[in-house]
UniProtKB/TrEMBL annotation, chain A:
Pfam families attached to this UniProt entry: Fer2_4 (PF13510)
UniProt entry tagged with the keyword Transmembrane helix: no
Designated name of the protein: 2Fe-2S iron-sulfur cluster protein
Key words, A-Z: Oxidoreductase
Automatic annotation (TrEMBL), chain B:
Taxonomic path: Bacteria, Bacillati, Bacillota, Clostridia, Peptostreptococcales
Keywords: Oxidoreductase
Species whose genome carries this gene: Marinisporobacter balticus
Name of this protein: Thioredoxin reductase
FAD/NAD(P)-binding domain residues: 5-308
InterPro entries tied to this protein: FAD/NAD-bd_sf, FAD/NAD-binding_dom, Metab_Enz_Cyan_OpOx_G3PDH
Record GO terms (molecular function): oxidoreductase activity
Domain of life: Bacteria
Amino acid sequence: MTRILKHPILGDISEQKKVTITVDGKSYLAYEGEMIAAALFNNDIKTFRYTKHHHKPRGIYCGIGRCTDCVMIVDGIPNVRTCVTPVKDGMIIETQHGTGEWKRGGQDE
Amino acid sequence: MNKASIVIIGGGPAGLSAAIEGAKAGAKVLVIDENGKPGGQLFKQIHKFFGSKEHKAGTRGINIGDQLLEEAKRLDIEVWLNTEVCGIDKNKKIWGIRDKKQSFSIVADKIILATGAIENAVKFSGWTLPGVMGAGAAQTMINLNRTLPGKKILMLGSGNVGVIVSYQLMQAGAEVVGIVEAAPRLGGYGVHTAKVRRAGVNFYTSHTISRAIGENCVEAVEIVQLDSNWKPIEGTEKILEVDTICIAAGLTPLTELAWIAGSKFVYIQEMGGHVPAHNKTMETTVEGIYVAGDVSGIEEASTAMEEGRLAGINAAASLGFYIEKEQEERTKIVWNGLNALRCGPFGHKRKNAKDKILASREG
């Protein structure tokens, strides 16, 4: 379990509202509003994308939306920074290969 | 809204402090931040701060963040979140994107850049593997996302960030296998270093990481001893079983907007590299554009708040909200605070480096 339920300074977190997300076709539970990267870590997923030329795995690096190492395809939009994008119920997340591509119907709303 | 008096870019400790001073002086203030929540990196700093009582010493970063937000709210400061600034022109026209949808432009009388910094990377074989991350990233994961980035962690770098994050990783329930430091001496404040040492963490001074081991993620790390010329000593390699490697190797100022705005720069290694030249009021070489916090040279949240106050006071004064005497008095008080923060063996180095930046601007 990677979720920190008890903490000596920050206190305990109680169970929160759960939402369902889909990652590469499989369903997972996440806490509503948590960052995608955190939701994936809590479901034991640490590889978010593969590089364009050498197909090397990448995960999170800076965790604050600056380095873009953690980008994935989210609801059809490629290059979404998962460390600063909160999950929403029904979100469809896909491992990104290279620079990714726009999926049909991929738009923000 | 397409015109504002003082626009502050970045809502961390420096930006919020600048906004509070600007608003207190009577100026119309707008804070723009890219993130969904204001506070910058304050809300992951759960340790108590240093300095004097005036500098909120003994108060945890998270509580300082709350205090700043409360004060900003009381002063009715406008904050645009989820807003990215992409450019600034010579006439202080700012353009950017709100909510990833809507472009905007706004003309400011004064601009304060408080954009912060990014963590440095250290390159070794395997450094791009999932499981290698910035120490600050691990701190964000545990303290903001309440998620452990790994169970067995190696920290590279024994400066304050390295030892503080190591301790916080242990508080969150992870095992810190060791702290590797390339220099022969440890780099952090004694009080933080001692806490980690008392908890039984191994320190490897004069060591570095030679490679991260693993196919798809970190499975182990190889460290190696360094000689007095920082060269690896053959035969001293040691393999430690870890699933995460954190890199605490300093920060680089996020200066893109200051470059675009046309400020002159000066290279000061101790301050994180290229920093915008600025004077004692935090004004860059572009009239009416100020900097505060890590973007003006890497220091700490406590100095960032004082620099923010300096920029806020002086931007407001240049708009006529303070007469010269008031401006001088208020500036002097903040400078006394800054000088107090920049003393001692650690602070003194930063003071000297800051003096170099000021000298470059005067010269």
